[in-house]
Each structure stands twice: as C-alpha cells, then as structure tokens.
Amino acid sequence: MNIAGLAAAGGIGFVLLAIVINVVYVRAGLPMPNSGQSLAAVTGSLAAVGDRLKKPSVVAPATWLCTTVFAAGLLAELWRGEPGTDAWALVGFAGVLMQNATFVVVEALRFGMAAAAKNGDPVAGLWALSNVLFGFNQVFLAIALLGFSAAGSGVGFIPSWHAWLGYASAALLFVSSSASPYNADGTNRIAVTGLIGWLGWAAWIVIASVVLLGSS
Question: Which parts of the chain span the membrane according to its record (predicted)?
C-alpha cells in the first residue's frame, strides 16, 4: 500500500476510533469537558469511574498515529512545489500535530483528575484546566482544516464544496475555541458550535480519505 492508501486508512481509522472511544467514555460515566455538570457531580463521576478509564485510553495513541499518518499522506499528495499551496499544506499538517500534542495533555489530565477524586482531593483546578485546554484545542483543528482546504482546492485535489465544508467547520471551531476562557467551570453555552465543527472535521477527513483512496 502506498502513502495515499495508508493516509486514507489512517483518516477513516481515526474517525471510527474517535467515535468508539467517546461512546465508551460516556457509557463508563466519565464527565466530558464542557458538559455543564456541577463540580460535585464531576468529582463523584471521576471517583466512580476508577479503572474503567484505562481500557479505552489504551486505544488513544492509535488515534494520534492515525491522524499523523493521514496528515502526512495528505501533505505528500498536496506538495506540488508551488510556494502558495505548499505553505497552506504545511499549515494543515502543523494543525494536526498541535492537536495531537494538546490532546495528549487532555487525556493525561483525565487520569490526574480521576486519581485526585478517588483520594478525596480537590479537582477544581484540574477540571478548569481540562475544560479550557479542551476548548483551546479546537483552534488546531480549525488550522488543519483551513490549511488543507486551501491547499487542496488550490491544486484541484478536492472539489470546492469540500473546501467550503472545511472553511465552515474551521470557522465554527475557531469561534468555539475563542469562548474557552468563559467555559472553565464546564458550562458552555455554545457547545453545539464546537460539536458541529468537530462533526464537520470528521466528515471532511472521511471525504478526503475517499479522495486519497482514489489517487492511491
């Protein structure tokens, strides 16, 4: 399998794994960032989740591997030796790398909060950090969508409607990210904005993966 095929597999694999992991987290009772739960409810949920947090988190590194392979393969396909579009492709690749690095911290914070809650220690500071960092992370998704959409449409690799899906999703994610300082307590009045943006990001990846398969 060439790099385009591997990238396509990585993109589709990421979306599937992300959905499965989040479903498992919700079923396990893990409080999600910006869920609007009270601090008492969050602390109780974290104390109760215990070792159930470990199993789904084992798969988390695979999602970061998948997105990196997807982004690297897409970068290779978009690299045409043209300064303008090449620069945008690099912007997209950088956004994916920053998203992965930031979400490693978000994932690790979950274990820190669970351990603190289990021992009866305060989790307010860690919960606020997790909420704001989770929100700020959306800007890197926006950067990835902006860069790859601009580069992909610039070289004719993706159709204009696909690029506009990326631009619209990036705008929603950016707005949601900008509101993060006001969501430290977990109450996010525009959470649906970020959710729609993320769903657009996931759809953008799947569509791009199909295009990559066609070029492999």
Answer: 6-26, 58-76, 88-111, 123-149, 161-179, 191-213
CA separation for the pair 202, 66 (Å, rounded)? 13
Q: Which amino acid is at 67?
A: T
The model carries a pTM of 0.91
CA–CA separation, 50 and 177 (whole Å): 30
39 vs 190: CA distance, rounded Å: 19
Q: How far is CA 95 from CA 137, 162, 178, 201, in A?
A: 10, 18, 16, 12
CA distance 167 to 83: 21
Per residue in 62-112, pLDDT tens? 999 999 999 999 999 999 888 889 999 999 999 999 999 999 999 999 888
Amino acid identity, residue 110?
Answer: R
Residue 96: burial class (beta carbons within 10 Å; 0-12, 13-18, 19+): buried
